[in-house]
Amino acid sequence: MSKIIETNVLIIGSGPAGYTAAIYAARANLQPHLVLGLETGGQLSTTTDVENYPGFADIIQGPWLMEQMKIQAEKVGTVIHNEIIVDVNFQTKPYLATTDSGIQFKSKTIIISTGAQARWLGIDSEEKFKGHGISACATCDGFFFKDKEVVVIGGGNTAVEEALYLTNFASEVTLIHRRDSLRSDKILQNRLLKSPKIKILWNKKVIEFFGSKNPISLEKIILEDTINHKHSELPVSGVFIAIGHNPATSLFVNKLNMDKENYIITKPDSTETSIEGVFAAGDVKDKIYRQAITAAGMGCMAALEAEKYLAELD
Ligand code: NDP
Questions:
Q1: Tens-digit pLDDT profile for residues 232-241
Q2: Are 15 and 113 in contact (CB under 8 A)?
Q3: Are 19 and 70 in contact (CB under 8 A)?
Q4: What is the pTM for the complete model shown?
Q5: C-alpha of 255 from chain center
Q6: 3 CB near ligand 1 (under 6 Å)
Q7: pLDDT tens-digit profile of 143-194?
């Protein structure tokens, strides 16, 4: 027989949005349950230095921050499950969610905070330099490249915004795109083309990253021309990969309203999804800001909205 757990609030996902929702829901005496998911702690658990999370004047480590959030959530009364949700049913009330080991949650509200994953190029040498010269977030890591030459890869809004942002620190920013035209908004393209610090390399893709081993540090990249396939190299200290994100929403396809890129759509100024009592917070619904602090803020909103919804149910 599978185990059944009845609860007021089920939180799916353990990034800053999920843990913050848990802290607020627990402190509102809602006895929430949180299911950790595949990557405990979310994207921050695989980063290194964090310097922009308010409250810490000295650099902290991403995995440490997430561990602290987990401890805090448990301390105030959240029940944490090291499980993965494999199915949800919003047709019944309470809503149902089933884990990989067969636990069935019956919950009056659900907060979805399953996050998103940055897309990477998938080159072996990319793995070696992640966090040591290769990043997927200029807002998080740009500051570490003061007066250095950096590269941004991609041609969408994120890539162009990141390139512009990086001009605040880097001595030179090179945007590398695999085609000869950008897909980003025209207004951003105009700003990009006008920036004296930004140079664009068209029709190029990165095929290899090289650097020193001790300490691990990126030094150059090898490029291939996508038209004539000629190789070239570029000395560089930092590479920002901005080729899109994949929101972790496969569980909710055809169950919740999503946009064309599969981000969950919530009501204006709210975290409520197309199903009442089901809320979404963090990168799973946000493709613009993608910060730990904005995700945490949305987690707080989701818990407060769940609390209000439950009060109205009663
Ligand atoms: P996009 O999917 O819009 O763009 C991804 C870019 O990366 C494309 O130029 C694509 O090239 C390139 N790319 C994809 N895969 C590879 C690869 N393997 N190698 C090299 N290049 C690759 O992602 P974004 O993150 O830029 O934007 C996602 C969504 O968020 C969009 O809807 C965007 O408008 C929105 N957004 C809005 C912002 C705003 O309004 N301020 C800010 C940021 C994002 P190609 O063009 O050839 O396909």
A1: 999 999 999 9
A2: yes
A3: yes
A4: 0.83
A5: 22
A6: no
A7: 999 999 999 999 999 999 999 999 999 999 999 999 999 999 999 999 999 9
| For the CA of 157, the nearest atom of ligand 1 | 26
Instruction: Provide the strand spans (E) within the chain.
Output: 4-12, 33-35, 49-50, 60-61, 79-81, 85-89, 95-99, 104-112, 116-118, 134-135, 149-153, 172-176, 198-201, 204-213, 216-225, 231-235, 238-241, 245-247, 278-280
| Closest C-alpha among 92, 78, 99, 79 to residue 23 | 78
Is 272 near ligand 1, meaning CB less than 6 Å away? no
Closest CA to 32 of 223, 299, 274: 299
Mutate to test the pocket of ligand 1, among 134, 178, 208, 239 (most ligand atoms within 8 A of CB): 178
The total number of residues shown for the chain amounts to 314
> Which residue's CA is the closest to the ligand 1 atom numbered 41?
288
Choose which residue among 165, 241, 243, 264 to substitute to test ligand 1 binding: the one with the highest number of ligand atoms within 8 A of its C-beta: 243
Residue 1: the pLDDT is: 58
254-268 residue pLDDT tens:
999 999 999 999 999
CA–CA separation, 96 and 90 (whole Å): 7
**201 CB within 6 A, ligand 1:** no
Q: Which residues are catalytic?
A: 137, 140-141
Mean pLDDT value of segment 81-103: 97
